[in-house]
Amino acid sequence: LFISVINKRASALRALAIFPFPSKSHAIGIQHLFQAMARRGHSVDLVSHFPRDKPMENYRDISLRGILPSIPNSTTFDMFQSFNFLGMKDFVRIAGAETCDLLELPVFQELMMTPRGTYDVIIIEVILFFVDTLKIYSIFRCNKYIIE
């Protein structure tokens, strides 16, 4: 009985998740979290390069597929040990400038015009300070409660 009373007072969240880094390994784990949220009645909008193959109730994919080249999921510890400055330049280009350039896309322009209060929570993958550098919290007109 107590649980049913709690459930009657609970409400579903409207969540926006932005995962701009084009690596499948970055998307897989978070997709499971947001799919679980959608199954529990929350409304989820997920911006990523790896949309689901099948639609799901309460879950909307905003696809960036094909806009940036996909980063292979084959990074090993040995690769990090031999990581040189030239490799860092490519990483910064992909994770920094190219990822930030995504904000110019129509899909992001539309999201930026979303009225304040549309989303209860905004979750953003932080790659090279994507959130702070671009002041994402002000672009989407939400409060600055960021946990990195």
From TrEMBL:
Can you say what this protein is called? PLAUR protein
